[in-house]
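Risk register update: the risk of archive-format incompatibility is retired. Evidence:
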Amino acid sequence: MNALYPYLTSNSDLFQLQVKQPTVTTRIRSYINSQHELSIKTSDKDQCYEFLGTRSDFGPNKVNINNVPIHIFSDENNLYGCNAYTKKEMLLIQDKILLVSRGKCNFLDKVINAQQAGAKAIIFLNNKEGEHEFRISTDDTAHSSIITIPSLIISYNDALSLLKTNRKQLTTLQINQLPSIDNDPDAIISLLYRGKRIKNVVIINL
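Archived output:
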């Protein structure tokens, strides 16, 4: 699917399979990326918030993290997570989920730095508006094989929303693997083309 993107005028030129799972998640899922999608939840005293993340192709395959504190640096140098952290910074990161912005260095370096600092997981904040969802990958198998913590990327809009909720001093996140769409009898699958729903679609699993 990713190979087609350079030849499309816009994301709307691609057929999209969107899924509603009312008993599983409040978010619309992508059928194509569903096996890599994770639910990210947090709450304050008034309401709950949910986001979707796409797991990187390195690190653990199954992710279940419950009520772990988060940390994000306010200074630009550490916001991108490209440099090794000092001992003082490690104390802020240890046993927490680290939020870092996309950009300035490769994703794998960011994960290695976070892991060495004792982070439980790392969430990449996508800073490119309107970009299609993608899964982070690497050809550096020598270094990716040492990764033991999960990493995932969230969309631009979800990144903004998560940062807004963080301003309310929401201190913990839950990150959990979402169940299969194919095995969910309540899943509602819609085929879209250029934003319009195509009716009478039948999904056949061979």
